[in-house]
Design brief:
Elements (H helix, E strand, L loop, with lengths): L20 E4 L6 E2 L12 E3 L18 E3 L5 E4 H5 L8 E3 L2 E2 L5 H15 L4
Antiparallel strand pairs: 1-2, 1-6, 3-4, 4-5, 5-7
Bound molecules: zinc ion.
Length: about 120
């Protein structure tokens, strides 16, 4: 099912509208955030089940982990992405959005980017 309980996140958040969706390519190759950023070409981050951005969640198949948009820091849950098939219009709702000025968010995002992409995003 889409939606459900979301734990408190480890960084400050800003409001996000659940109507803001990630659109998933039917082939599963690419995902496009409502802001226009694309997972296929942009340096997206991933987060563990607590929402903490970490390289350990890279290529995760855990439905309780998250992806975080590079362009706007909206948070999408893996479970919703996995279930974003034809029945759901190939779309997954954002479950939150990080405040990109939170120093803890900035620090973890930079650490992730170095580990995953070898440099700042
Ligand atoms: Zn975005």
């Amino acid at each position: 099912m889409i939606g459900g309980m979301i734990p408190p996140f480890p960084y400050r958040t800003v409001p996000c509208d659940p109507a803001d969706v990630m659109t998933v390519d039917p082939e599963g190759e690419d995902q496009r955030c409502v802001c226009g950023s694309r997972s296929f070409i942009d340096s997206w981050a991933v987060a563990d089940a607590t929402g903490r951005i970490t390289i350990e969640a890279q290529a995760s198949t855990d439905p309780d982990e998250y992806v975080v948009c590079h362009g706007c820091a909206r948070i999408y849950r893996n479970r919703d992405l996995f279930e974003a098939g034809p029945a759901n219009g190939y779309a997954a709702p954002c479950v939150g959005r990080y405040d990109e000025t939170d120093p803890a968010f900035v620090a973890d995002a930079q650490t992730f980017s170095l580990a995953a992409y070898g440099g700042p995003a």
